[in-house]
Amino acid sequence: MVKESSREGSLKKKRKTAAAADSETDVDIYKKSIEFEEKEALARPNDADAQIYFNTCKEIRQLFGEISELKTKNNPDNKMKIMEKTTDVCLLLVLLKKLNRMEKVRLVFPKEQLATEKQKVDSINLQYQNLLYEANHLISEYRKCFQFKSKDEHIELVPVDEFLLEAPENLTKKFFKFDENDEMMKHELRLARLEWELQQRIHLADMCKKLEEEKKKLEADITERKNKLDKLGPLLATVMEATKPVQEHLGLHIDKTLAEHKLASLLPNSLYLFYANIDAYRQVNDKSMNVEIVGDQDEAIQWKEVELNEPVVEEDDLSDAEQEAEAQESEEIVETKKRRHRKSVHVDPLEERKRKLLQVHPLSIEVTVSVKDGPSIKIKFSYYVKLEIVTVSATVDIPSNITGNAAREVLSNENVLIELVEGDFGLESPNPCTSYQLKRVGLGSFQSLVPELGYVYGWAQKVCGIDYLNKQTNKFVTKQTADHMSQTNVELVMKTVKKRLKSRYALAKQLEDLERNVIPTLPATVDLPRTTISSLTKWSSSTYQDFCQAKFTESLLETDLIFPNDIFYLATVTRDSANLQAFVVIKNDYPVAPPIFSLSLNYKGAKNSQNDDNIRDMERAINVDWNHEFSNANWLLSAQITSLCVCLDIYLETDDPSTFQQNTMYIKSSCGRNRRKPFKFRNIGVGVYTQ
Amino acid sequence: MVNKLNKRFYNTVLSQTFTPCGNYLVVGDIYGTISIFHLSKLVNQGSTITRQDQIPTNSFTIKEDIQINSLLTTKSHLVVGTVGEILGYTWKNVKLSKKATPSWTIEIPNAKDSFEKPDVNCLVLEPENNVLFAACGDNNVYSFNLETRKNIKTFKGHKNYVHCLTHLNNKLISGGEDGLVLMWDARTAAAVGKIEPYTRDKVSRPELGPWIGGVGINDDWLLCGGGPRLSLWHLRSLNISTVFPIDDKGIHVAEIFHDKIFAGGRSPLFYQMSFNGDIVIEIPTAAVTTYSAIHQDEPFQTLCIAGSSPKIDVCSNFIYKNLQLSLC
């Protein structure tokens, strides 16, 4: 197209420059020739033109060849021939030009045709898209219509089956042959059901109103009766008051027990359970025992009221907001309770939470157990409400005949109850939640709180029926099992406490003597000679550290039988130049586990169970060869020490008979391949020692 | 109560022996209990030994609190020397039965009417004629025919009880609490020689006493020790050739084994030495005093050392301890 226009342009230029005057006719001819040429071009076959073109080109090439040939020959007459041939070539070029023009025309025509076709396609496409859009729009509108919710759909209707059964027949009969697919029918059914629903609801509303009225009537009745009862109260009280002189006269303490029982009702659940059981136990088994509820009654009443008003909120589920609310609430309580606190209302919330967590119930139970003519122990049980634990603090009333330090120590306040059950030191809270609770308010381990709160022995929780593992189960069942647990444990624990107190007193009496380097006299039933030359020369308290540091205790430490909580003493037994040092380890459950002795003899070098079989045998004789009945508590330790003296005598007398005169009765000084010494006592005649 | 200190803590092993097959170790303690350990299983197990493996596979009590002084293995029986009698148990009984009963008993002929029965401190077998020698607490050594279990000879000469015995080529050597080492003709029961180590200044240790706890012998040499130092004596001249420089408070085990001397006693170590007195190997022991050390080459090399401890040390190469057995 561009070429064509440029060609036209150039033609126009020619026309303007060459023949400006005769324009009209010239234009016509030009136009005509063009039209003719166009027609000719369309009429002629392409292939023929191509053939002509090739031929023409061939001829031109030929002619050029001839011209160059003629030029090289350089003949004068050749010039003519060259001219001639040049003319031929020019003619042929004209022909080529013509062919070219026709080709151009041929090209233009299909192009135009293509353009018109394209336009047509575009318009059709546009039309199609318009229609598509319209269709989509219609579909969406259609859908919207379908999604429209009618109000009746939200109404809960009686199910169809029920409706068909219950509604009157005139409503339902046309639906018995109900066809799922019949939309009209479906619609009618719905209308019928809606109508039925309306009827029903009206009916029910009426009924509700009636019942409401009835309720009001009953309420009025109840208040009336209540008022009557209230008036009766003071009347009864005056009657009671009037009977008081009579009661006193008859010596009945109904009042006192009544007061106590009233107080008991204010106890927290677990302590109440304990109180009920221990009181029963006291009445039946041990009249010498004393059970008392201590604490301020008014405070307890207040506490109970607060507890009732306060909604029970699970501590664990508290969100922050709730926590704050609770904190405020507690502040209010503080205000009403103690006016002083008013000025410092804005306490540190953490401190407040700490205080709240460590709140103790104002009432606690004091149980006093005593041994005849001996010490008595007062055990105080307190309940920590938020921690849900029972703590124990004890005070021992030591009789005046016990004066020695060591003796008083084994009877000291907390020492008596330690390890009542094996491994129970009461330092770690049995409630698994406690450590988390303490962490939340920024308190350290429970152990650090023990001096302040008291000991949390496992048995103390048991006698109060607290079982942490079963807490989650059904409440009713828990109550029963708790009661059962408390009942069975109260007896067990109280017996153990009494036993412990007795054995501790027995131990203290022995220690009292031992501290004065006197071996207590043994009862006649104990088979041991009473005449020993070796004697106790020193008896002093010791510690676990000292025990560990002594070399000769190594093998005993390896047995895992010695604990830091045991009671340690260092005894020295002497005969002439020989002295025997003995670590005495008294277990907390003396005499169930007998005291353990670890020996070291200083005589011709240090000898102990690590380097001398005889010392080892001696330890065996003292530590192991006993039958440990409970009745032995009174003399077991003394007997062991007496035995220790005898063993030292035997050792020295058999080892060096020339220096140590024989005092003990034995037959052979050594026997067997192990050359063992006669440490075994046999009750033959006056008593003989054998191997 | 489980965690009470019990007497097992103070247990002592006085005697050990291997079964004829060599796969089991039999141990007798002072409480009268025989314990059997499955040694071959433990040795093969290597390092993965639990506490459960260390305890005996079987044990039975012969008589409560009567110490088992000596044990001896014969092809058919385990021979047990306790107090006042020698008992024979079949091996099947020993390995499997919880309440084994003896298949035969030899009472020690007890001339004196003492109410203390004599200990059977050492048992030695002369396999050719099937003769059993027993060193006893009544100062005598007895020989018994194992077939008939009749007393053949009584070897009288010691003035106190006899600690140890050893036997080689019809020669019987015994060591006693009286400090004598006596040499006997095993067939005639005639004393053919005698040495008194406690009288020699070189070896005597008066503070420990004269007693002889262990004797050993080979063709040329005699080994003995106890209260006196462990020493090697030339058999023909009866002169001391070597005094062993070991730190002990009494020897209870002395043996000549090939070209080595084994010795143990009240000492924290068990020694292996050469004839000229050089210490070759020292093995630390669990026991305060070693009372028994036995060894075997077949079916596997083992040395078991036991004494006043409930633990038994086992060395599978004689050089260091690689296993510990426990009676409790």
From TrEMBL, chain A:
Q: Does the keyword Coiled coil apply?
A: yes
Q: Spell out the coiled coil positions from the record.
A: 201-228
Kindly name one Pfam family recorded for this protein: FmiP_Thoc5
Q: Where in the cell is it found?
A: Nucleus
* Compositionally biased region (Basic and acidic residues): 1-11
InterPro entries from the UniProt entry: THO_Thoc5
Q: Where is this region: Disordered?
A: 1-24, 312-332
Q: Name one GO biological process term.
A: mRNA export from nucleus
Gene Ontology cellular-component terms listed: THO complex part of transcription export complex
A single GO molecular function, which one? mRNA binding
Please indicate if the UniProt record lists Nucleus as a keyword.
Answer: yes
Q: Which UniProt keywords apply?
A: Coiled coil, Nucleus
The family classification in the record reads: Belongs to the THOC5 family.
Q: What is this protein called?
A: THO complex subunit 5
Q: Which organism is it from?
A: Zophobas morio
UniProtKB/TrEMBL annotation, chain B:
Listed InterPro entries:
THOC6, WD40/YVTN_repeat-like_dom_sf, WD40_repeat_CS, WD40_repeat_dom_sf, WD40_rpt
Q: Name one GO biological process term.
A: mRNA export from nucleus
Annotated transmembrane regions:
none
What Pfam families does the record tag this protein with?
Answer: WD40
Recorded superkingdom: Eukaryota
- Asked whether the UniProt record includes Repeat among its keywords, one would answer yes
* WD repeats mapped onto the chain: 155-194
Note the PROSITE patterns from the entry: WD_REPEATS_1 (PS00678), WD_REPEATS_2 (PS50082)
Q: Which SUPFAM superfamilies match?
A: WD40 repeat-like (SSF50978)
Keyword check for Repeat, yes or no. Answer: yes
Q: Which Gene3D superfamilies match?
A: YVTN repeat-like/Quinoprotein amine dehydrogenase
GO CC annotations on file: THO complex; transcription export complex
Q: Which UniProt keywords apply?
A: Repeat, WD repeat
For this chain, the family text in UniProt reads: Belongs to the WD repeat THOC6 family.
Protein name stated in the entry: THO complex subunit 6
Q: Which organism is it from?
A: Zophobas morio
